[in-house]
Amino acid sequence: MKRLLLVSAVVLLAVSGLRAKNLQDEMNLLTSWFDGRFDNFAQVYEEKEAKVEFPQEHMHSIFKRVDLPAIGKYVFYVQQYLDGDESKIYRQRLYNFTVDKNEKALRLTIYTFDDEKKYRDSHLDPAKLSGLAITNLATIPGCEVFWKLNKAGDKFEGYMKKDACRVVSKRSGKTIIITDDLFLTKDEIWINDQARDEQGNYVFGNKAGVHAKLRRVRWFEGWTAVLKSGETAFANTDFPAENYDGKTKLVLHDQGGTAKINDKYSVQLAQLRHKSGAWVLTLKILENSTGKAVAYSWTNPEAEKLGINLRWVQSGFSLKK
């Protein structure tokens, strides 16, 4: 009997050790996928074309891993903004990932800053976070997100415990209940934040319950040149350089990154889905007054170079490495 108990104890210890090892492997994978910038421009574009009843907001999420051993081993600075406008920040957070053996999952603890302005844009200057202590942060018990890798090993699923995340709204003074339903792959993060009050009334989130589908961005550097006189269809004239408004060393991401060329035109890079279902990488020249494309080219979404030359407008971009 004693031998049987000893063998059982050894087996339990072995299984426990294996589980811990697997969770650590999953942590390494999740944190490598999580690090980066993501944008749902393609989804917003499609929903606008389809005129859906409850369209998604245009979201851009920055998840930058930072070295803050006083907080934890797997820490990320988070900054999120709307409408492709970096000044429209709607969320700043610090995320800390840990292994939760009891839940058999990876736990994400979400912290808010005591002074958001002080730490703004820390993804560009992580030194701003130096000296940050746990006393500069606040978290709400019950609002942790748990992540589990699916059986195929190609997607993490994130969830909050049912009715556990309860927050008193600063605006209404009412208690709201927040739920989160997420997916993470090496190329995308899907987010479905929902909030209701205690009576079940809607507070925020997509009313159709559709995830915001953010795709990982890639960065390109390039140039543009457009005739100051504007579009000249089928022009066969070689114009001198002084007739163009030119921009060099433009850095854009491929999920709707846009830059103004002059008062008339802008340039945009975007991965979009064709009606056939195939994804393409597009380079567009947009008319500022209407937002419509007056010229464009496209290639496969994995391409590292693309360009356009219609004489009156010229542009070229290459992947930054």
Description:
- With 321 residues, the chain is mainly beta.
- It has 2 domains: 29-216, Lipocalin (Beta Barrel); 219-319, no CATH class.
- The chain is 15% helix and 46% strand.
- The protein has 3 helices and 21 strands.
- It has helices at residues 2-34, 41-50, 116-119, and strands at 36-39, 59-66, 74-82, 89-100, 105-113, 137-138, 145-149, 156-159, 165-168, 175-184, 188-197, 202-204, 212-216, 219-227, 244-253, 255-260, 265-273, 279-287, 293-299, 305-309, 313-319.
- The strands form 3 sheets. It has a 10-stranded antiparallel barrel with strand order 1-2-3-4-5-7-8-10-11-13.
- A hairpin with a 4-residue loop joins strand 16 (255-260) and strand 17 (265-273).
- It is elongated.
Strands ordered across the widest β-sheet: 1-2-3-4-5-7-8-10-11-13
- CATH third-tier fold name of the largest domain: Lipocalin
Low-confidence stretches: 4-20
Cα-atom radius of gyration: 24 Å
Shape: elongated
Q: Give the averaged pLDDT, no decimals.
A: 91
Percent helix, as a range, is 10-25%
Indicate the CATH class of the largest domain.
Mainly Beta
Task: Report, as a whole number of angstroms, the end-to-end distance.
Answer: 63 Å
Number of helices: 3
Which terms summarize this structure?
single chain; Lipocalin; 2 domains; ten-stranded antiparallel β-barrel; four-stranded antiparallel sheet; 3 helices
Quick description:
By secondary structure, the protein is mainly beta. It contains three helices and 21 strands. The chain has helices spanning 2-34, 41-50, 116-119, and strands spanning 36-39, 59-66, 74-82, 89-100, 105-113, 137-138, 145-149, 156-159, 165-168, 175-184, 188-197, 202-204, 212-216, 219-227, 244-253, 255-260, 265-273, 279-287, 293-299, 305-309, 313-319.
